[in-house]
Design goal:
Layout (H helix, E strand, L loop, with lengths): L1 H27 L3 E3 L6 H18 L4 E13 L1 E11 L4 E10 L5 E8 L3
Antiparallel strand pairs: 1-2, 2-3, 3-4, 4-5
The structure holds 2-acetamido-2-deoxy-beta-D-glucopyranose (NAG).
2-acetamido-2-deoxy-beta-D-glucopyranose binds next to loops.
Length: 117
């Protein structure tokens, strides 16, 4: 019995810490990381793609003005969540968009909506 308790005392920290490690590994995926260089040509390309795709769907006739800020999230590929300004010639508005891109640079517009604030 005492031997059993000793084994438990030894095993418990092992199980406990391996649980903690697996939990932190899971939560590390899906974290949004700020994009440091929003003028990066690739980031601008993603923003242009978002506006183009939105124009196809909504026939909005928007043109990208600037990328305000952005974050990336590693998934199976990368999610880009960008705040951008776009104009339709009469008005400039701020939008928030999410574009997914895989390792082969295939892109998909996930969301595009007016952003307030
Ligand atoms: C541009 O956007 C503004 C504000 O949303 C809207 O009132 C206007 O009708 C739009 N103009 C064109 C040409 O689509």
């Amino acid at each position: 019995m005492q031997q059993f308790q000793q084994i438990l005392v030894l095993l418990f920290p092992l199980i406990f810490f391996s649980l903690i490690i697996s939990i932190t590994e899971v939560s590390a995926v899906g974290e949004w990381t700020p994009i440091k260089d929003i003028k990066d040509p690739h980031v601008v390309e993603i923003a242009k793609f978002a506006v183009d795709e939105y124009n196809k769907i909504g026939n909005a006739g928007l043109k990208l003005t600037t990328v305000v800020s952005g974050e990336t999230q590693v998934v199976s590929g990368t999610n880009y969540r960008l705040i951008l300004k776009a104009t339709n010639k009469t008005a400039t508005k701020t939008y928030r968009t999410i574009v997914w891109e895989d390792a082969f640079k295939n892109k998909k517009l996930t969301s595009f909506e007016p952003f307030l604030g």
